[in-house]
Amino acid sequence: MADMWDGMACLVTGGAGFGGSHLVAELVERGARVTVVDRDAIPGKPLEDMGVDDAITFVQGDLREPETLEAAFAHGPFGVVLHLAADPIIMNSLSKPASVVDDNVRATTMVLEACRVAGNHPVFVFASSGAYYGDSFDPEPIPETREPRLATNLYGPSKMAAEMIVRGYGNTFGIPHASCRFMNTYGPGDRHASRLVPRALAQLAAGDSYDFGERDDGSTRLDFLYVGDMARAYMSAAEHLAAGGEPGAFNFGNATLNSVRDVAERVSLAYDGVAREPAFRGVRTGPPRQRRLDVTKAHEVLGWSASTPLDEGLAATVAWYRAGVPAA
What we know:
This protein is an alpha/beta fold. The protein has a domain at 9-188 and 224-255 and 292-308: NAD(P)-binding Rossmann-like Domain (Rossmann fold, 3-Layer(aba) Sandwich). It has helices spanning 18-29, 46-49, 66-73, 90-95, 97-118, 155-173, 196-206, 227-242, 260-272, 296-302, 310-322, and strands spanning 9-13, 33-38, 57-60, 80-83, 123-127, 177-182, 184-186, 221-222, 224-226, 248-252, 258-259, 290-291. Strands 3-2-1-4-5-6-10 form a seven-stranded parallel sheet, sandwiched between helices. A three-stranded mixed sheet has the order 11-8-12. Helix 7 (196-206) packs across helix 9. The longest helix is centred in the first third of the chain and has 22 residues, at 97-118.
């Protein structure tokens, strides 16, 4: 379905952000007519960095406000709605959990309701998370069928609740839907210095001590997915639904575990060839957390697989940073 995007009217929520900007750029390149809704203005955002801000229709506003969605859907009808808008910062889910749940659950419901009222039943692709599964200490890949476990913050439960709403609207009102569960995404455009790679780059550029604080002891092992592979994943899910494929959830990841210490060391080498020793000052109180997703379903059903090795993706991220786009 390589040509389905040519002229396709698409709505991307959160499209001015890190992951959304890469998706929007890919859609524009494929000929889609893209409307972006984002709470933040474009200037200074990744969407402007990628040079596609003039090729889209932009609506600034909060998705929880009816007038925002009315303004967005005035540019429809949409064939595809890709809902990426969320509060993805784990620390926010600890400091202001009610706000994060409201952002991630109520806003999703509002977008789905706008799709229902629109009446044309657009394909609906939801940005979920590997955090859906809760804490994991097992290195074995997690399949989509595994039940969620207890989490240590409200981010994962907020995504789980939003997924249930997506399924409920989809099954009740006939909206084709897919939930995309992603692992730790990194790449050019990420300014969230609370995350590992942007934090490493900010410290390296400033000449600060290579210190990652007390949240981890460096032993946590995760699957890191390049943002370009994530953009292709969203589109693969939408293509599947547009072709009449079964709705459901899909895992996306690189299928490889790397410790956060190892990734920090690789960022240092990619930055200037210096092998710095990162400081992780957390105290381990049990077995290390480990989480990677089984991506067999995405490969077999969608024909998707990650194509960017970690070192290649880190090199691209460092090149973006060195081009003069600082992490905030």
